[in-house]
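Section 3.1: Structural characterization of target chains.
Under the original work plan, the team committed to producing a structural model for every single-chain target entering the pipeline before any wet-lab resources were allocated. The record below documents one such target. The sequence was received from the expression subgroup and is listed exactly as submitted; it comprises 129 residues.
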Amino acid sequence: MSTSVWLNLPIHNIQTSAAFYTQLGFDTTDMTDKIKFVVGRERLIVMLFPEPVFRSFTGGAAIADTSSSAEVLISLGMESKAAVDALIAKAESAGATILGKPHDQGWMYGAAFADPDGHRWNLLYMAEQ
């Protein structure tokens, strides 16, 4: 059985991505040709690779054009509505494209943004039932 999940994403510019995720509050590690940060207690490891490096891992497959298509929707479970509000505010301040302002659906509270490379992030607080 696996011991962790690694999410690998292509990026255009290491400095831009590092600055963005640092502004969101993630502890990024610049590893010269990639960036690493860990999300949550479950320790989702996110690796950001410049497109040529990413392509070398995919057998040369084309990289999704995030300006016209969605490659994936990454959802983060948040601890509270306030945590959703705080992170979406940080994302907006850091230059994210806001895809969905905070909204309450009763059983779920959420918001969504796209990072500078167009990767879509969904922030969710699920009310206990």
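The first helix runs from residue 14 to 23.
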